[in-house]
Amino acid sequence: MKFTKMQGAGNDYVYVNCFEETVADPRQVAIQVSNRNFGIGSDGLILIMPSTTADVRMRMFNSDGSESEMCGNGIRCVAKYAFDHGIVSKKEITAETGAGILALRLIAGSDGKIAKVRVNMGPPRLARSEIPMRGDAAPQVVGEQLTILDRTFNITCASMGNPHCVIFVDDVAGFPVSTYGPLIENHELFPNRTNVEFVQIISRTEVRQRTWERGAGETLACGTGSSAVTAACVLNGLTEKRILNHLSGGDLEMEWAEDGNIYMTGPAVEVFSGEIML
Ligand SMILES: N[C@H](CCC[C@H](N)C(=O)O)C(=O)O
Questions:
Q1: How many domains does the chain have?
Q2: Please, what is the Cα angle at 219 between 25 and 178, to 5 degrees?
Q3: 126 contacts 230 by C-beta, under 8 angstroms
Q4: Are residues 133 and 100 part of one domain?
Q5: Same domain (yes/no): 101, 137
Q6: Residue-wise pLDDT tens digits, 1-39
Q7: Bridge partners, residue 11, by sequence
């Protein structure tokens, strides 16, 4: 199987061009290639596919083999790959995902290749049932209490096609993400599990995020998570609608715009290509 390794803000995936390759069992392949000791090493597998409704289609699998509806850092890399490898020739494209059809604007660097992508991530879905979450305490989950082990957190939840639970903390660098992350990911409140974002507010326009991803553990960045964080910051009155989010592997420029959509702008980088015997 031919593949290309790409990363966006350090969130790295193995990408396969399914205009040319066929991946019969993507769940199994995701587990195999993601392994950092016995495989290529990545947070998961992303298939770049033909679409009947958009310029390109993305399917995304976590390193545990589970499929997600959407991947924000991944979609930027899909757009870069599609342009740099001649699948598309325009700089305004559409992509079919499990979260619907998204519009992307491709921004080239000085070498003519795509360096950055701005993605219309759509509106945050805030209804409890859309995340999805059990219980009916409130129709939206903004600052609801959740006790895990010795601590009670205020959680704010949003779906960007995939589920997110956002928690504000005072010191994100020192926060025990791998202790609380998996317990929240697999909590009975979330029937489809959830991604978890731990966020420190720096100012009205700047935040710092660490991410515990459903199906992958702690990653260096999460674009859908950053989008959910943008909504959560505004809903809790903590920031303006435009913020710079510092993630562990890089920065994302975020905006919850007047049209109700969240816009994410960030880097997309091709690292290397190769072939793996499956
Ligand atoms: N890192 C990705 C999200 C992966 C989400 C996945 N872990 C899930 O199960 O929803 C992003 O940039 O949006």
A1: 2
A2: 110
A3: no
A4: no
A5: no
A6: 999 999 999 999 999 999 999 999 999 999 999 999 999
A7: 8
87 lies in the same domain as 138: no
Q: Which amino acid is at 35?
A: N
What is the reported pLDDT for 261? 98
The residues, any chain, with a CB within 8 Å of residue 258's CB and separated by 6 or more, are none
Query: Does residue 253 share a domain with residue 152?
Result: yes
Whether residue 132 is preceded by a cis peptide bond, meaning omega within 30 degrees of 0, is yes
34: CA distance to ligand 1 center in Å?
14
* 83: three-class secondary structure by DSSP: helix
User: Is beta strand 2-8 parallel, antiparallel or unpaired with respect to 44-49?
Assistant: unpaired
Q: What tokens were used for 146?
A: 């959740």
- CATH code at 199? 3.10.310.10
Distance from Cα 224 to the centre of ligand 1, integer Å: 6
| Ligand 1 atom index nearest CA of 69 | 10
Q: Are residues 108 and 152 in the same domain?
A: no
Same domain for 241 and 147? yes
**Domain boundaries, position 63:** 2-121+266-275
Known catalytic residues are 71, 222
Number of residues in the chain: 278
Q: How far is CA 160 from CA 52, 241, 254, in A?
A: 23, 17, 14
Task: Please indicate, yes or no, whether residues 110 and 183 belong to a single structural domain of this protein.
Answer: no
Instruction: Select from 199, 230, 232, 192 the least CA-distant residue to 214.
Output: 192
214 marked ligand binding residue: yes
Residue type, 123: P
Does the C-beta of 97 come closer than 6 Å to ligand 1? Answer: no
Q: Which helix (H) or strand (E) holds 154?
A: strand 151-159
Single pTM value for the model:
0.98
For residue 11, say whether it is annotated as part of any ligand binding site: yes
